[in-house]
Amino acid sequence: MVVESNTPFQKAIDAVETLEIDDREELLELLKMRLAEDRRDEIAANAREAVNAVREKRAKFGASDDLRKDLLGE
After folding, report:
1. What average pLDDT does this structure show over 38-50?
2. How far is C-alpha 24 from the geometric centre of its chain's CA atoms?
3. What b/e string do you get for 15-45 counting C-beta neighbours within 10 Å, with b at 16 or more?
4. Is 35 helix (H, G, I), strand (E, B) or coil?
5. What is the CA angle 42-40-26, rounded to 5?
6. pLDDT exceeds 80 at position 3
């Protein structure tokens, strides 16, 4: 597939397409692992923020009806 684009993303795709299939598969697995690690880091950061919000009493607790009322300003 030929795409007329010179973006960094397209350059990366073009570079990957020059690799042997085994190397592409290895790259794919590496990218999956790194994405999973990035997601874990993001979840951990969100958890730290939630813990801080609880400690600072910025967090709200309640049932789904309480959330709905809070969001709708009821």
Report:
1. 98
2. 22
3. eeeeeeeeeeeeeeeeeeeeeeeeeeeeeee
4. helix
5. 120
6. no
Place of tokens 């950061």: 45
Q: Tokens for 26?
A: 């290895």
**Which 8-state DSSP code applies to residue 6?**
-
**CA–CA dist 29, 58 (Å, integer):** 40
Rounded Cα–Cα distance for residues 59 and 46 (Å): 13
Token duo for residue 1: 């597939």
Report yes or no on whether pTM surpasses 0.70: no
Which amino acid is residue 70, in one-letter code?
Answer: D
